[in-house]
Amino acid sequence: MESRQEDSMAAQKQGLSGGNDSPEEAQQHIAALILARGGSKGIRLKNIKRLAGIHLIGWVLRAAIDSGEFNSVWVSTDHDEIENVANLWGAKVHRRSQEVSKDSSTSLETIQEFLKKNAACNIQVVCNIQATSPCLHPTHLKEALKKIKKDGYDSVFSVVRKYQFRWKEVKKGSDECTQPENLNPAKRPRRQDWNGELIENGSFYFATRDLIVKEGRLQGGKVAYFEMEPEHSVDIDVDIDWPLAEQRVLRYGYFGRGVSLIFCRVSGCLTDGRVFLSVSGEDMVCVHSRDTTGLRMLQNDGVEVVLLTSRDDPVTQSLSGKLKTMLSCEVVDVGDEPLKDVQEVMEQRKLSWKNVAYMGNDISDASCLNLAGLSGVPADASKEAANAGSFACRQAAGMGALREFAEHILQQTEKAKMQMKQDRIDRNNF
């Protein structure tokens, strides 16, 4: 994850507007900021609860980092667990004070504190992204930011078009009759004859530093809106929203750029870790056919498979030759800490972490799980591995977890291909 933000940083240093700006404009620092307080009242620690296998905040962090538009991507929080997840996704962390961590604290107050305490960064534009908007895409942020960088707006916020008739509320016990607020009942329009209304959807708010600090506003000055499609406008406040949001994000969420290689631990991922002893005294392990099918599905889609066996485990060592033949894949022996051996394989293939998926189950896998573009753990993984992985399988090791993670990878890859194809269409037509 960190490599993607580093790529974004490098791009920003080359200039923010295609190289035609003045030196002052070209060095302007644009930051993305996600506010993630630990004291959510509707759903406990909602911001890091897993939605479709991924931390809720991970969906917007991935979109922000992959947009390539920000010099820095931050999470403002008062909670250790949220800080750990933010680091996992490659974001910087601003530990907010107790003064702006109350139920009554406003977003404006929190952002003002962030700018004050990070004055050395010389941040000139802030994009406040809501963690509860999992269908946000990099293109939304890129197009909205153009209005500030190219068109000179001071603030830009996201909206969605609604087709709802509004009526005036009448207080209980009042003799007053309700009145229409946005329609004439005598000439009630059909949906196709009405443009609807633009409503804030809370997905993101861009604002200049001067507007936030000097005027104390997130919206003001020269104001513009960015209209998002209804399918990308998702908000989560209470538990009942969760299953609906999960269905929506699986269909319309942003799934990254895809991967070209997967590393998978044999013991504890491909197998359940148990060893059987035959009558003849031979050690045997069990491999689920669903998992081997999952690996073949990845190979058929062009994803290279590398299985990792432990040098200290004679059972998986003896299994490696059979797996190599059966799955036509490479098998690599790794030490107690697999990071070094994995990086050697990546260097040979000239791959960066964002192009790699990793499946592990133990504390020794945590470093690789943290760095991989996509990372998965079986349901029975250790706590350390589960905290480091971005996708938590419902199945246990050796019981179909690898197939589940493979399907997740393929889904993300397909989404990425469709999104890149649409981006090309948009660039060619507009």
From TrEMBL:
Region (Disordered), start-end ranges: 1-23
Keyword Nucleotidyltransferase carried by entry: yes
Catalysed reaction equations from the record: an N-acylneuraminate + CTP = a CMP-N-acyl-beta-neuraminate + diphosphate
Gene3D superfamilies: HAD superfamily/HAD-like, Spore Coat Polysaccharide Biosynthesis Protein SpsA, Chain A
GO annotation terms (biological process): N-acetylneuraminate metabolic process
UniProt keyword annotation of Cell wall biogenesis/degradation present: no
Class in the EC hierarchy, top level: transferase
Pathway: Amino-sugar metabolism; N-acetylneuraminate metabolism
EC number assigned by the record: 2.7.7.43
A GO molecular-function annotation: N-acylneuraminate cytidylyltransferase activity
InterPro entries per UniProt: CMP-NeuNAc_synthase, Cytidylyl_trans, HAD-like_sf, HAD_sf, Nucleotide-diphossugar_trans
Keyword line: Nucleotidyltransferase, Transferase
Similarity section: Belongs to the CMP-NeuNAc synthase family.
UniProt-recorded name of the protein: N-acylneuraminate cytidylyltransferase
